[in-house]
Amino acid sequence: MKVAFATDDGIRVNAHFGQSSMFAVYNVTRGGSELLELRRIPDIAAQDEMGKIDSRIQAIEDCTLIFIMQIGASAAAKVTRRKIMPVKVPFGSPIEEQVKRLGEMLQGKPPMWLAKVLRAEEEGAEVNGTNG
């Protein structure tokens, strides 16, 4: 599963969703994890709040989870409508630590919120696999 982390340095979750300058995108599975890429958000001075949110959603639209420090209500609603679950973590949480914890959850019995996300992802893959 692809997972994004709102970050300003690529090392820690230290950004609010709407102000994040980049997202570290990892592939996390039961067998391990890898950093896929750092997706930088272009700084468009004239962009309004909705434009900022939309550009960030476009940057992570292939992800299942987004780890963030904070997210506004309207942004959270838009993100979840795209079937991306926002996960709030404390400011400065090391990304590697969050990736490791997520991997451990996948290996054991995932908490209910994660099991639900995994089920939805599997159903989406089945639908896409049979229709695509």
UniProtKB/TrEMBL annotation:
Gene3D superfamilies assigned to the protein according to its UniProt record, in alphabetical order: Dinitrogenase iron-molybdenum cofactor biosynthesis domain
Superkingdom per UniProt: Bacteria
GO biological process: one example: nitrogen fixation
InterPro entries, alphabetized: Di-Nase_FeMo-co_biosynth (IPR003731), DiNase_FeMo-co_biosyn_sf (IPR036105), NifX (IPR013480), NifX-like (IPR034169), NifX/NifY_domain (IPR051840)
Transferase listed as a keyword: no
UniProt keywords, alphabetically: Nitrogen fixation
Pfam family, one: Nitro_FeMo-Co
GO MF annotations in UniProt: metal cluster binding
Keyword Transmembrane helix found: no
Regions annotated as coiled coil: none
Ranges where the Dinitrogenase iron-molybdenum cofactor biosynthesis domain occurs: 9-102
Family stated for the protein in its record: Belongs to the NifX/NifY family.
PANTHER family named in the record: IRON-MOLIBDENUM COFACTOR PROCESSING PROTEIN, IRON-MOLYBDENUM PROTEIN-RELATED-RELATED
Listed NCBIfam families: nifX
Designated name of the protein: Nitrogen fixation protein NifX
